[in-house]
Amino acid sequence: MSREVQLYNDVSIFCSELITKKYSTSFSLGINTLHKSIHKHIYSIYGFVRFADEIVDTFHDLNKKEILNQFEKDTFHSIKNKFSSNPVLHSFQIVVNKFEIEHNHIKAFLKSMRMDLTMKKFNREEYKEYIYGSAEVVGLMCLKVFCNNKDLYNKLEPYAISLGSAFQKINFLRDIKSDFEERERVYFPNVKYKTLNNSQKIEIEEDIEKDFNHALVGIKQLPTIAKSGVYLSYNYYRELLNKIKLLDTDRLKQERIRVSNFKKFIILLSTYINPI
Asked: For the chain, which terminal residue's Cβ has fewer other Cβ atoms within 10 angstroms, N or C?
């Protein structure tokens, strides 16, 4: 590889790193606890999924369907040609080709993004399909980087799916106010925003607990390069769930639940002092 090509690759990856740090301090913190050798790969995955999500949820005055369709075409074109003039897609294709990330996972992710363009409510099957595409396959992309070993990847795949599912369901709960007020969208099947009650909320929380309990089994088996970082994210989202549990549905509809920077530091410290 020429020095010029390496420089282009490095600059593209840096763009994805910058996107990650600007959009998500929590995700950036989690990446920092992964082994340094895989930081750039996870930044590249996050940059890709972040920009796709922004196309769907941010640029309301544009033809989002057309832009997303072009984004998908450009994504697979870059993977095939191992190059893109879009630095986010260029850094993503490097990871996809290096770790042989399944194209079906990328397609599933973009399908879920496309669902956000038109759907306001979801039945149970649509809910499962959306979570699979929007969160679970993203976890599987990261798992490819963590393992870089087919047998271990296959063994840990169901646990990564559970973790991605838990994370997404918590995001649905914490963002339920903005999703409805800004987009008239409710992801939970058979749930109406205005009539959401504590019994329904508890049922959702119990479902998340099952996902978390299953995911923890897999986290314990992750390679050393990834275990601490994933465990930190697990603990961070568990704290979010604990905070949500303390609120009734009226409070949940009034504010977006956050973890303070001080609490994030405590979680980080605890993760290091009491490793999994």
From this structure: N
